[in-house]
Task: structure prediction
Amino acid sequence: MKMGLLRDWLGMKPAKAFISEDEKESLQTIIQKLNQIPIEQARYIASFAYILGRVAHADLEISAEETKSMEEIVREHGALSKDFSILVVQMAQSHNLLFGETENYLVTRKFKKISTLEQRKNLVRCLFSLSPSDHSISVMEENEIRQVSKELGINHTQYISIRSKFRNYLAVLKNTNSPNSSEKNI
Result:
């Protein structure tokens, strides 16, 4: 029941509809583990991973580095196995790609309801740590992180405090060769 609810919430087909026979046995083991997780924890992990995918997809592309980083973050913060975190991230990415524009706010609002302020601030830290997987936080990614933080009820001072730890990765601060920056130097 719990796995079915998680899949329904993520809008995914049952696992057997998208796996090969070779993958079936190992994924069934993971699915059995999913069924053992309390529904509250499954909702938390699913929404956490979804929001990571939301920011990773802000520039309309999720790189292999971002996917790997998402898997590590989900594994670490969800206390999950490697295989389990891979499955959760794949499900979250698929759902985000299919329904992101219509469900971003809904999922973020749900996460706000089921998390503490410290957990929400931790998620924003994770969003910033995810983004520089390509050594730069793009303006689009930063804008999406800011939007998420507003939806989560993170105030401006808290946001700036978190953001300041990642300033070396902010593309807007790295872009010193733009025409506008040379005008400022004159």
Summary: The radius of gyration is 18 Å.
